[in-house]
Amino acid sequence: MSDLVNKITNKIKDENIRPKPRWQFLLKGYVLWVIFGINVLLGAIFFVVTLLSLRDNDWDVYKYLDQNFLEHIITTMPYLRITALALFIFLAYYNYKHTEKGYKKRTRWIVVMSLVIVMLIGGTLFVIGAENKIEKLLAKNLPYYSSIEERKIKVWSHPKQGLLAGKIVKIKSAEEMEIVDYQQEVWEVDTSEAEWRGPNNYSEVGERVKIIGKQEEGNKFKAQEVRPWEGGYRGGHRSGYYNRFEHVEEYNKHDLDDDYRSENKMKYREEHREEYKNHPVNNN
Amino acid sequence: MEDCNKLTDNELVQKTLDNQDYFRCLIERYEAKLVRYVSRITSGSKEDIEDILQDIFISVYKNLNSFDQDLKFSSWIYRIAHNRVISVWRKTKNIPVVFKNEDSLELFNRIASEDDLFAELAKKDIQKEVKIILDKLKREYAEVLILKFLEDKSYTEISDILKKPMGTVATLINRGKKQFKEIVEQEQLINNQ
């Protein structure tokens, strides 16, 4: 092999072989890290919407849908989101593994680390309240994406089985309101014996609600429980004042006038803050 | 040109990037080691081995700017050699690890010096069968055993050469030894003694 040295050096000279420039290797390294970052970010996004899906799932309504709890879990699990989350964790692992020193770490360490970063970023997005915006963005831009909203509408559009949802369009009295459901049907809802879920015992025209109860003749519905549309069993985070008593007429005049309501909402609230707080309904 | 013998590997790399002629020094320094290593992890004629060596050094030269000084140069060049042999093996699909007699005995004795069960086996005079047994080992086990016991590489170096975590290297060495013992039992070599 003593002439191997000459063979190699002659070949390098004859073929004008040159070392590849350093920037090519640096660029490859940076690209891998950027792709790793993108995968982690996408993983975090799907982590957020998975959390949202689990939070907003009404785990207790299976009884009204002729399902047992296990069936309800199986039919409402956010499979697409969980699969996408797993995919991006895997891609993040794959990218990391191919970085310069990625081989030094064991698979489980890389997967766990990626998952922790995804959960930290996703958790932060969730805590700052970005989950709904992200969900809407995905629903708008991803083909075949089945939004949480669509799923909830499906679950809560079973009035014969006691599940009704829609937008409040009129507050007739302290115990009666009118809603339009997602099939554009108008319902008269008796709330005289209803339990109100959520942090505040209130409703406003324009708000969307979920109602458990019983369909009576025609489009009348007797409510046992009213929940805010956002959020799951315990109800979402909301603020506001109960306004069904004193300003029903005022509100009903403008019940579909968003500009009026938004302009005057804060004014009414401030003027009647004490009344709302002290009203018997709010203190039960 | 400076006297190459006084230069470290890293210094030679830098010199080569400035002046192509220094590459001869790197080739001379690693030629014998890589010939021996490549011969151990592949079978083939002298000409085949020489062709592979040529490819290895050309690849080393082309990729000199990717050499990370945090790594030992020997680990890096062994990595290139290993990868080159694997890619040749993938194309031809017929280059298993075939141990030479002297290598198989040396490997066996080196393992026996640190493993009690192997030491027991060594007493039972199965040296003649050692080569047969080692030739039956899974390739990934044979590779790490060669690097550890014949090339005298540390766990860190083997990790850098094969681009596997150190824990995995240790696992592969243990599994290699375990498979060796299983083959001995399957071949009933102990019972026949």
Describe the model.
- The complex is a heterodimer of chains A (284) and B (193).
- Mean pLDDT of chain A is 83; it is low at 234-252.
- Chain A contains ten helices and six strands.
- In chain A, α2 packs antiparallel against α4, α2 packs across α5 and α4 (79-97) packs across α5 (107-127).
- Chain A has helices at residues 4-14, 22-55, 69-76, 79-97, 107-127, 131-141, 148-155, 248-253, 258-271, 273-278; strands at 163-173, 176-181, 186-190, 195-196, 208-215, 220-228.
- Helices cover 49% and strands 14% of the residues of chain A.
- Chain A is of the alpha/beta class and 284 residues long.
- In chain A, β1 (163-173) and β2 (176-181) form a beta hairpin.
- Chain A has a five-stranded mixed β-barrel with strand order 1-2-3-6-5.
- Chain B has helices spanning 9-18, 23-41, 46-62, 73-92, 101-112, 116-123, 127-135, 139-150, 155-162, 166-186.
- The model of chain B has no long low-confidence stretch (mean pLDDT 86).
- Chain B is an all-alpha fold.
- The radius of gyration of chain B is 18 Å and the shape is elongated.
- In chain B, α8 packs across α10.
- Chain B contains ten helices and no strands.
- The chains are: A alpha/beta (284), B mainly alpha (193).
- At the A-B interface, α1 and α2 of A face α2, α3 and α10 of B.
What structural keywords apply?
heterodimer; A: 284 residues; alpha/beta; five-stranded mixed barrel; 10 helices; elongated; B: 193 residues; mainly alpha
The count of DSSP E runs of length 2 or more, i.e. the number of strands of chain A, is 6
What general form of chain A does the structure show?
A: elongated
Q: Assembly state here?
A: heterodimer
- Uncertain parts of chain B: none
Sheet-strand content of chain B, in percent, reads under 5%
* Main sheet specs of chain B: none
Q: How many distinct helices of chain A?
A: 10
Low-confidence stretches of chain A: 234-252
Overall mean pLDDT score of chain B? 86
- For the termini of chain A, the CA-CA separation is 96 Å
What level of helicity do the residues of chain B show? over 70%
- Assign the structural class of chain B, choosing from mainly alpha, mainly beta, alpha/beta, alpha+beta, or little secondary structure: mainly alpha
Number of DSSP strand runs of chain B: 0
